[in-house]
Design goal:
Blueprint: H1 3-14, E1 19-24, E2 30-33, H2 40-52, E3 56-60, E4 63-70, E5 75-79, H3 83-93, E6 98-102, E7 118-120, H4 124-131, E8 137-141, H5 146-157, E9 163-166, H6 170-182, H7 187-190, E10 193-194, H8 206-221
Helix pairs in contact: 3-8, 4-5
């Protein structure tokens, strides 16, 4: 690895910017991807490697390349240490994501209820400012309380979060959108919120609802649902 490539890789990792180190196996040439210096096919293969968080050898442009994905873990931020969150968090833990539960109600966000998870008792808008959601961050609000959900959603819509979901009925969601419109968010921005959150699988119980939420999260995580 050349000093220039090493410096660029170190800078990308420090900035938590997902990159792929591509090594051509025939001669050891290395590229940091995506890059304007690479072919469209090589860049596309790098983006797939990042999307799947996988390292692999691929035949591209008539040559064998080893693609090493360097990406920070996907972050899942849950606002509301509620009953559904207690089902959602253990399921999500198996997906290899970085989990954070935000709830200023300290009697809810306890280590007994949420062991081995990052807990934040800040108000949701303050928590979001600290978390600084990026393109590898998903945000789900579960409280049903506008005082908690709305500030989190306001910040989420101003970020690059790849998935934003909010629990509540269609009526609740319509009222939520009206409030967020009053805060200055336009129709295109509001369309980013998946509400009611989760795939329609007929879920009733808390574990079923948690499963439906994770299913939708995975769809967007794998970019199948992006416009």
């Amino acid at each position: 690895m050349t000093p220039e490539t090493l410096a660029a890789l170190t800078e990308a990792r420090a900035a938590k910017r997902p990159v792929v180190l591509a090594t051509r196996l025939t001669d050891g040439v290395q590229l940091l991807l995506p890059s304007d210096a690479a072919s469209p096919d090589l860049n596309a293969a790098a983006l797939r490697a990042l999307d799947r968080d996988e390292n692999a050898t691929k035949e591209i442009d008539g040559a064998a390349w080893f693609l090493h994905a360097y990406a920070p873990p996907v972050r899942l931020v849950i606002v509301g240490a509620v009953h559904i969150a207690q089902s959602l968090v253990p399921m999500a833990a198996h997906l290899g994501v970085s989990l954070t539960v935000v709830d200023p109600r300290r009697s809810f966000a306890t280590e007994d209820r949420f062991p081995n998870v990052t807990l934040m008792d800040d108000w949701p808008d303050e928590a979001m400012d600290k978390i600084a959601p990026d393109a590898r961050t998903a945000i789900i609000t579960l409280t049903h309380d506008p005082k908690l959900d709305d500030p989190a959603l306001d910040r989420a819509l101003k970020s690059e979060a790849f998935y934003i979901g909010s629990l509540g009925s269609k009526k609740t969601h319509a009222a939520r959108l009206a409030r967020l419109t009053a805060l200055g968010h336009d129709e295109a921005a509001l369309a980013r919120i998946k509400g009611p959150v989760g795939l329609d699988i007929g879920a009733i119980t808390a574990p079923e609802i948690a499963l439906s939420i994770l299913a939708e999260f995975i769809v967007y995580r794998r970019r199948l649902g992006k416009a």
